[in-house]
Each structure stands twice: as structure tokens, then as C-alpha cells.
Fold each of these.
Amino acid sequence: MTTAPPLVPGIPAEYQPATGSAPGWPLVLYFHHVHPDVRHYTALSPEEFERGLEQVLERFDPYDPADLLADGGPRRPERPTVLVTFDDGYRDNATHARDILDRLGVRAVFFVCTGLLGQRSTRPREDFLTYQACDRLAGEGHLIGAHTRTHPHLDRIPATEGRVQTRGSLDDIRERYGPGPARLFAYPYGGVPVQPHLPEDVLAFGTVRSPASPWTADPQQIRRTYLPSGAADTWAALVHHWCSAWDGPATPAVAGQF
């Protein structure tokens, strides 16, 4: 039986993280920073990140991101699984998160802004991975996906500009990592435009702004949720609720979408 959703104090209702995925589909978590000094709703210190993932992995098996690229598209797993994702491509994803992921046996998808890669700064929120660092992550079994070139609000800019941003970043990923990873995309700010301008075979990930639909029903608006920063006392309840919801009545798949 699904438990009552836990509420995280101070977070507006539309951004509450309690809703995970449609029953039977992988729970998808998104992070931005793993850094001791960054304050952001999806930024955790290295110690918090490790502790939070450990709690999640008590109930969920790691989802292999390579399964996203399977022929015919991903299938519902037999057990509760979690897919870990990172947005924007910050350098601390490699300097702090990488070793923790390795220790816990987790492989992730890093959605990077291809036009910002290589930009360096003493400010963590302006300090990005290089392509070489992305290459190393890819070589270790992680996937590099597209997140536009410069991180605009796709739902607030002209459609022609949005197409350049989305298709351009997918082309950048395809050129370096091949056609498989170029089928993965995440919307900046979770803003899904009326016309996403994505190829039909692209799996596109939103945030808590997206509905918890089966991936086959809405493959270009996959819901993700998060471990809220500054609210570690709610994580156990969230993990329990996500797992209970995963075991709920499975929504029938829609054929022909993948």
C-alpha cells in the first residue's frame, strides 16, 4: 500500500519531491552540485550525498544507464531501481561525486551544457567540466547526455532559438560520444516547451514539474525528483514513500512509443 506523501517544510507544493515515478518505472533522481560550499535545493555536500545515496540504495537497486539505450527502448525493471542524474556539468560532479558513485557501484547520466564545458571559475556555480573530464566519466561507464548549449529557459525563448539549443547540444554529444548518448536530453529548469524540437527517439527528462507518467506514455517528459538539501531528516520517509509507490498498481504501457 502506498504511504501518505511526506511533506518537506518550506518547499512550495508544486516543487515537493514526494512524487517519484509511475509505478514500476525507475525512480530518477537529479542533482546539480556535490560540493561543501554550494547552497542550492539539489546541492549536497559530499558527506550528505553519500549518506543520501546509501539510504536510497537500501530500497532501490542502481539502474544501469546503458539500459536507457537498449534496442526498443528501456523496459520496466523487475525490482525498484534508481537512476542517478546530474544537470549542467559542474566540475564538482567529477571532483566530489565521482568517487562516491564508484564506491557505491552507481553509474549516472551527466546532462551537460555543451557550450559551457571547459569554462573555469573559482565560483563553483560557474565552474564546469571539461570535455576531457567527461571523456573519463564516459570511459568509466557513465553516460554524457545533452542539456542544451547554454542553459536557457526553453519554455521562454523563441522556438527557433530553442531548436538551435536542443538540436545543437544533441549534435555535440553525437559527435563526441556517438548516436546512443545523443538520445538522452534534460530540460534546463524543467521547463518543457510546447514544441521541444527533439527527435522522436530521444528520451527527455524533466524535473518535479513533470507528471509521473509511464515512460512509454510520455518519453519526452520523464519525471525526476530529488533529495532536498537541508532536509536530511525527511529522506528516510521520502525513500520509503518512493518505494511504496513503485510497488503500486502498474500503469499499462503504451505500445509503439519506443
Amino acid sequence: MATVLYDYWRSSASYRVRIALNMLGEEYEIVPVDLLAKTHMSAEHLARNPQGLVPALHIDGRMLTQSLAIIEYLEETRSAGFLPEDAAGRARVRALAYAIAMEIHPVCNTRVAAHIVELTGNGDVARKAWMQKFIADGLRAFEAMLDDGGGTGDFCHGDRPGMAEFCLVPQLYNARRWEVDLSGLERMQRIDRNCSEIAAFDKAHPDRLGPPPLNS
């Protein structure tokens, strides 16, 4: 059965999974789920993912949700090399990935930002200030984490990209979108540039997809 990714073009979590699938050379179809049109809350999508989130990946006859769970499934079933072979290395890469996916992303989720706007009544000003604060704080911590453990090379851990980069690159895309000050974050920006030269990352970039059709 075909591999299908239920995806929103600007979703960081979906972006992570696109990179992972591309790195594997896995053929997949993208079915857009328009978050702005609230398609993710339709009965059809809730049947795929009761949380009403993206991505959802139909692969190997099963439906998977949560981007890092999907990436680890690909790692375990395809010997993907997204995590180092040693336990200490795996722990370090997971910590880097989680610092973004479990610390920055949840508070900068579209739903959370929309609620902040509701509470403050200050529209885009409040949303942008919120995003800039929490993305900047999280990325500064991530940059410091790259110094810890001695594993940083051309990429976050050694000389090949993996799960940490799958989280970092989409987060930096969001940081630039929200005009976050990235000065002083030289290591992660160098890693991001290295990733941009890899076809699997370039192909997954939101600008390659664009927004979903109006009738999606």
C-alpha cells in the first residue's frame, strides 16, 4: 500500500517527517491538511489522528502520528541511521531533538499562539512577541547544548545529519519567518547551511510545497 503523508506545508512537525522520508528515498504522496481552514478538525482527519494534528503518516499498512515517533519508527524499521549507534550518542541526539520538539514547539504551536492573541486582544503584535521570545530562548539553549558532549562536527552530532537536524532546520525556518534575532548562534546556522546543500532537506522545504489548494 502506498505511503501517504497528511501534511501542512508550514508545519514544523510535518517538515521534519518530509526530511526523514526524503533522506530514506521513500516514495510518498502528500495529502494537504489545511490548518488555517481547520481541516485538521474534520471528522475525516480526526479518524486519522484523534489529536487533530499533523503529520499523520500511513505507511506499512498502519497510521502513525507524532513526528518523532514516526522518525524513530523509520529508524527502527529501515535501519535509517537517524540516531548514532552508541547509547550516549543516541541520548545526546534525542536531547537536542527534544529541546526543540518538546520545549520550543509546544509553546509556539499555532493553537497556542492563537489563544495568546485571544487573551491579549493585541493581534499580530502579541503573537510575534510571543514567538520571538520563546524561539530565541530555546535556540540559545540549543546552541549551548551543541557545546556539551563533544559530538558537534559538520552537523549536530558528528558528520552526518539525523533526528536533531530534522528538528533544527524547520525551527530555524520558523525563527526567520518570525524575525527572531539569530546573532551569536553560529554553530546552528552553520549546520543549517550544511543541511541546505543536501537534496533531501531542500526538497522538504515549505517553499517547495506552498500553501494547499483552496479546495483541499
Amino acid sequence: MSDLKSTPLEAEHQAAGATLTGFGGWLMPLRYTSDLAEHRAVREAAGLFDLSHMGEIHLEGRQAAAALDHALVGNATSIAVGRARYSMLCAEDGSVLDDLIVYRLGEVHFLVVANAGNAELVSRELVARAADFDVAVTDRSATTALIAVQGPRAEQIVAELTAPDDVETLRGLPYYAAAPVTLSTGARALAARTGYTGEDGFELFVDRDDAGVLWRAALTVGEPHGLVPAGLAARDSLRLEAGMPLYGHELDTTTTPYEAGLGRVVRLDKVHDDGASVEFVGRAALAARKASPPARVLVGLRGEGRRSARAGYDVVTPAGTRAGTVTSAAPSPTLGYPIAMAYVTPEVSAEGTALAVDVRGRHEPFTVVSLPFYRRPTA
């Protein structure tokens, strides 16, 4: 694992006895205690995640919004200052190079957060696609740490980590919004309220050098509230229950946003100030794809037995005909039965359709259900 990058929190993970694994070119904590305990802590109290492997690319300048309108499938111009939006970077053929979150930090300042394994690609593509615009593209991934607190007690915990003058700002953040705050440690942070677990939560972007102090402070403040450090395994089962895609599983270079059920993020109607259409990268292919019947559809699958599927397993009809492929799967700790996401042919994609997954030669029964599998309780 010597060729893997380390986050600034590696020593903290080792001190906590974490099992470390390679992920997206980084050495990351897989678990600290047990997958089940960490998953349940996030659903019932709170979990602390090291997300410092993610990429942070800043775009600043007079044409920052226009550059992103050209580079991404979404409409950056319409994002209000202080808000965020889920978007995608697509190739000319409409395939997904990465899914990402775009934060508008100022009128001419945007932050693009990319997946770890794609961060360098996203940075290169944004530089190339912004070349004809008055904008500076700066990759600050190496100097930025990202720590997340997720769970029903996240707001209370992060409020205690925030300086008194900024607590009201933090508590007032709506979903998919961000604001600069000062932390109780004295560090400055960008606090965002997005998340990847299906629970309420916050992400704190800080300078790499401030990460260790913040991590330890979060554990101290959060312990009375039930907060525990959580690894990649819990993060994966949490996001699967919430029906959230993972690049390399539900999204990749063989997939467009439409197959993944994410056509809503593609804005074919983007226009310049003069009313002319924005010819963003991949627009022609995506317009054609939207107008064509799909060859496959992403669905949720509920297991009717006890055996879980795995990514890559075949989905079959009751007659034994292959109908698709599982992209993600796990036993659901929250729901108590196996769940999966899979690409299947349109004729077997309707909710309630009985299918099976070939689990090592045995056809295990699954039923098509709507996504997400889990929604957090409303107050």
C-alpha cells in the first residue's frame, strides 16, 4: 500500500485501530469497530467521516459561471451564492466522467468537489474546458481536508464545534448550502450541509494542517451524543440504503445520466445572455439519448430471502433469462433484508416485478422497488 496517498488523518485512524484499505488511490479507514455498529450509529446518533481524499477544485473569475456551464451538464449560472448543486462532468459521447457537487462561494467563485479516484481527471478537464474563459482554475485538493459529521445529532455536535458568533449561521444552513464559519478550535472552515448517508449532516472543509485538531475535538464533543468514527464500509451501506449512486458502480464511462435515473441534472435548456443555447460538452449526445428509448434502467431490488447479492452478479427473470447486472448490494442493517441496485432491461423495470439474482449458481428472489430504500424520519 506504499503507493497510496495518505490523508492528514492517517495517524488518527491508526491510533483508533482502524482497518485501512486502498480506495480511489488513497489509504482510507474501512472500519474502526464493526460495519454494523458504525452504520447504526449514523442512523441513530452520528458518525464522523474522513473525506479528505475528495478533490477540491476552485474556479474564480468573471466568467467562472459561464465556464462551468460549458464544462458540466448543469446550470451553474442559476446557483445562488451560498448554495450547492449536484452535477456531472460528461464526455462528448454523454458518458459520465464523474459526478460532483458544485458550491457557489461568491458571485465569481465556485468550488467543485470531485470523487477521489477522478479528482485529477476532473481538474484536468476543467482546466481544458475553461481555457477560453476569463477564469482561474486552481486544484486545492492537496491542501484541503474534509471532515463530515452525519446523523440525527449532527447539527447539535457541529454547533458545539462552531464558534458562538457563527452557530446561528451553521444551524440556519438549508440542505445543499454552505457558509464560512470559525470553529471552536480557532480554525476557519467552509461548512456545507449536503451528505451521502441519507441523514442530516455537515461537511467541514479546513486547511490540511487543521484536520487533526478538528478530528480530535469532534470526537470529544460528540462522544456524549453517541458519535463514533465511521469507515468506508458503513458509508457504502448508508448511501446504498439512501439510493445514492457511487462512481464506478452505478455511474461510469459506459453510462449516461439518463440510464441512472439522473436526467434531471442535465440542463439542455441552458442559454447565454443573448438567448443562444449553451453548447456544453456532451450536449448533442445527451439530447439524442433523452429522445431515445432506454436500453437499460437503474432500479432498486429488495431481497425476499436472506442471501445478499454482490456487484457484478446477474439479474435474471423467473424463467432464467438474463435481464441485467447488479451494481451495488448489501444486507440492509436498517431495514433487515438484502437490498441492491441494478441495471435491468426496461420490460422488467416496473415496481413490483419479481426477479432473481444469480448468487453463486442459486437464483435468489428479489423484487423491483422504488428508490431510495430508506428515507430519514421527518420531524
Amino acid sequence: MAGFVDTSEFRNGLKIEIDGEPFVIEYFQHVKPGKGSAFVRTKIRSLISGRMLEPTMKSGDKVGLPDIEQKDMEYLYSSGDEYYFMEKKTFEQTFITEKVLGESKNFLKENTQVEVLYFNGKAISVGLPNSVDLKVTKCDPGVRGDTVSGAMKPATMETGFVVNVPLFINEGDVLKIDTREGGKYLTRVSTAG
């Protein structure tokens, strides 16, 4: 543990440690009822498993700060269910399993710059850029004259991820995909050809 923090210092995004597990505060609210002592309602998400908890703490309680380190790294390749990353300064390599990566694996292509979060010296999660450019590898062709406003079709990206795209998208197009909202299509970056 890297120290302690009082509930009065809580803020969204603060990383805390409870029962030896690192969490990030998603939401908190200080409550001062008419009777009784003040308390803090929180919603916290585990940085390891992603599970959500909603503990209530007394005002003035102290919680631990986790021993967390963040490193800028580059995604190299995957082998089986292991995804390999390299630190840009030291060329040190580490891997993260597919289970730990979760949905993040859908947006990783070679040379993607990411932030790898370490807890007690072990890689636990990957912070992706807000958007990534991915090439369409499989997609039904758009039918001429099919111009229904807002109509979408599925397209398979180079990472194997399937995203709904507008009808005018073709195989070989490069698309900008939002990594924050589960992979929404944002715009076409370039066309096939």
C-alpha cells in the first residue's frame, strides 16, 4: 500500500485499495443526515475484475492508496491468449492474458500506443486511446439505391471485432472506432483502393 486517504479527499477517478484489491471511484456522495453521523456513498469498480461495489463509509474513515504504476507501452503481438506489450524507453516486455484484457483486445493492432497499469508489479489493465483506426476485412457490399437514412450493416474489422457501420462502407475502408463506448463507428478515415 502506498499510503492512506481520508473520505473527505474522495474524487471521481481516485484509485483506492480495499481488502488488498485496487479500485477506482466512479461516483461518490457525502451525506449529512439530520440525525446521526455523516457518511459517504460510493460506487467503485475493481481494476482487476471490473466488478462494481457500492460501499458506504463513515465520514473520516481512511482507505489505502494502491501501489499502482502506469507505463506507456506499445502493443506488439498476441500468442494464444497472451497479448505482448513493450515499454518504449527500456524495451522491457510484458504480457497480459485475454481474460484480463476483456473487451480491450478488440481494439489492439500492432504498434498501438497504450498505457499499461501495474499493481504490485503485475500488469492488470490496459488504457486505450479514445479511438483507433481499423481496416474493414469483411463486409457485405452496399446495394445501389439502398439509401435508407440511418441504416446499418455489420462489418468485421482487422482485429476480428464486428461493428455496425453505414451502408456505404466497403471492404478495405479504414474506419475510426470509439474505444470508450464498446466500439461505435465514428467516421471513415480512408476508402479502399
